[in-house]
Amino acid sequence: MAADNAATGGVGGINNGTLLGGDGTGDARVSLFSVDLGLVKRARALDGTVLPDLAQVNPGQEIYFTISVDNPTDAPVTDVRMTDLLDESQFAYVPGTMQEVLVASGANDAAVWSGSWNPLTDPVGPPDDVASITNSGGPPGPDRLTLGSETPQINQPLTVPARGLRAIRFRVRVL
Fold this sequence. Notes:
CATH topology of the largest domain: Immunoglobulin-like
Order of helices and strands: EEEEEEEEHEEEEE
CATH class of the largest domain: Mainly Beta
Helix content: under 10%
Largest sheet: 6 strands, antiparallel
Shape: globular
Distance between the termini: 44 Å
Strand content: 35-45%
Number of helices: 1
CATH architecture of the largest domain: Sandwich
Radius of gyration: 22 Å
């Protein structure tokens, strides 16, 4: 998707549709492009196998959730913000399991899973602070995951570099 806009300006207060020297030689057309980013949440077995929709899981079983943002453009996407609430009647977060990975845009499930995952801390604050998980005020235990500087858990801004896919994973126990 694209939209063309015109910028005007000139010398001495004369608006002549140019931004170069005020003499009409500049190009005042600005094109804005909009690209939908790929946002995916998946459930995976502990070995990384993607669980199909409506897959059977058992109480006490641990699985991973992954959330990924794919940026296929030539420009970085800054200040990405997301919130994901766990259904505490079905899942309990496993503390200390949050990790992130950065791979090439368009990477398949196997490439994402086999990437170099880096640990993240659960609470808001150093040393990583791009994601955190806290208790939303319901039953005891962390259940509100935020990525980026999303309120009320103000993390560091989350950036997805040009032609990059950034993913966060964490483990839950099925209740």
